[in-house]
Amino acid sequence: MKLKTVRIIILIILSQSVFSQKEQLTNETYRKVDSLFLSYNQNNKTGSAIAVIKNENVVYKNHLGLANIEHQLAITDSTVFNIASVSKQFTTYLALLLEEEGKLDFDDDIRKYLPELEHLPQKITIEQLTNHTHGLPNPDELSLLKGVETMNHNEVLKMLLNIKQVSFLPGDNYFYNNTGYILLSEIIERTGQKPFKDQQKIEYLNL
Asked: In whole angstroms, what separates CA 18 from the centre of its chain?
C-alpha cells in the first residue's frame, strides 16, 4: 500500500513537470504522461488511477491494473480506493484553514472544543493531535479491551470521548495512532459547524 502511494505521488510530481510552462495540451503531452504512467504498470498486479487537474478541470486521466487480483477486476473510473492515513494530511489542512479564519488555534487546549474530555488532567493541544504526541491511547487497543471487533465512526468517537487518562504526558513522547485525527475531525466539524465531509474543499494545485 505504501509503495503504491509513493508511486502515485511520483507520478503526480512528474506529471506536473510535463504540464508546466503553460504548454498546450497536445497529443505529444498526453503521450509523455502515458509513458510515465505505463512505466509503473505490472501485468496481473494491483494498479492505480491518476488524474491531472489544471484550473479545476481534469485535463488528463488514466487507470491501469487490477482492483481485485482474485476476481481479476480491473480498475475503472468508478473504483473506490481506501486512502487510509493519506487522509491525515487533508484533515490537518482543513484545521489550518479554520485557524486562518480565526476559528481555532493549534496551541488551543482540545478540551475547549471537546468538553467531554475536560476531566483529563493535562492540557493536550490541537498541534499534539496532529503530530501524535498527545499521549492518548490507540482506538484499536481500546476496542480490544471492550471486546468489540468492529465499530462505526460514531461508536469509536463516543469511546474516545470517554478516555479517562493518557498513556504518557502530552508532548513527552511520540506514538503513531488514529486517535488524534479522529478527535481532530470532530473538532473540525464543531468549529466549522457542518459535517466533516462537507467542509471547505481542498484547493487544487495550480499546475
From this structure: 26
How many residues does the structure list for the chain?
A: 207
DSSP letter assigned to residue 168: S
d(CA 106, CA 122): 16
Q: What's the average model confidence in pLDDT over 83-102?
A: 92
The residue ranges of DSSP E strands in 55-114, in sequence order, are: 57-64, 66-68, 73-74
- The grid cell for 179 is 486517535
Contacts of 17 (CB under 8 A, 6+ apart): none
The C-alpha cell at 22 is 503553460
Predicted confidence at residue 7, as pLDDT, reads: 47
Residue 46's pLDDT is what?
A: 84
Q: CA quadruple 145, 151, 155, 160: dihedral positive or negative?
A: positive
- pTM value is 0.69
Cell of 89: 494530511
